[in-house]
Amino acid sequence: SQTRTNTVLLTCEGKSLDSSQQVYHYTCSGEKPVFLFSKSNIECHIVQPCSSLPPDPNLQERLERYLSDSQTCDTLKFGADLANDYQKYSENVLTRTRQLVQDQELQRQGWAAVIKNLDNVTAGFDKRVAIFHDLYDSFLTNKDKYSTPHVRGKIPGF
Predict the structure, then answer these.
(1) Res 51: pLDDT
(2) Rounded-to-integer distance, Cα 152 and Cα 158, Å
(3) pTM score > 0.70 for this model?
(4) DSSP state of 59
(5) Which segments within the chain are labelled E, that is strand?
(6) DSSP one-letter code for 157
(7) Closest CA to 124 of 5, 4, 16
(8) Regarding predicted confidence, which is higher, 142 or 25?
(9) Which residues of 120-138 are buried (b: 16+ CB within 10 A; e: fewer)?
(10) Mean pLDDT in the chain?
(11) Residue 17 and residue 9 in contact, taking contact as beta carbons nearer than 8 Å
(12) Does position 32 have pLDDT exceeding 90, yes or no?
């Protein structure tokens, strides 16, 4: 089970969810979800393999037997049953493939949210750095105003 400190919730715009707000306060364009990330999985270098539907060796064996038998009414019925089983198997493969494609799309959207979040954090940090530089430049320009002995003792570098 994941603890709060090991998980990150992000909207599709990359905004971190505030734990004091309920999820319905957050809106995204369209029907995009909120993404839950496990920090340990993000930091892990192990790629989770996709599970796939294994081939059915029984179908292959039955097909080879059907192709080698002489054509009789029984082999035609056997062939029809085999074709039906192949169709069911291919429907299962199609369903699983669609699910994998949907999972990959959600994963792509989730990682896009992570990138947007990092962009937002970087932009916020850049803004704070610019404000700091402006304030520091202003301080250096007006240094003489702050040059009283009382104030000078409180400011490092004087």
Answers:
(1) 63
(2) 6
(3) no
(4) H
(5) 7-10, 35-38
(6) T
(7) 16
(8) 142
(9) eeeeeeeeeeeeeeeeeee
(10) 77
(11) yes
(12) no
pLDDT digits (tens, 9 = 90+) for 78-106: 889 999 999 999 999 899 889 888 888 87
* Residue 45 in tokens: 């270098």
Q: How far is CA 62 from the centre of its chain?
A: 42
Helix, coil or strand: residue 34? coil
Structure tokens at 157: 């570098």
pLDDT > 70: what percent of the chain? 59
For residue 1, the SS3 value is coil
**Residue 9 backbone dihedrals phi, psi, to 5 degrees:** -110, 130
Q: Which DSSP helix (H) or strand (E) runs through 81?
A: helix 73-141
Give the other-Cβ count within 10 Å of 60's Cβ: 10
Interior/surface letters 18-52, b for 16+ CB within 10 angstroms, e for the rest = eeeeeeeebeeeeeeeebebeeeeeeeeeeeeeee
**CA pair distance 129, 138, nearest whole angstrom:** 14
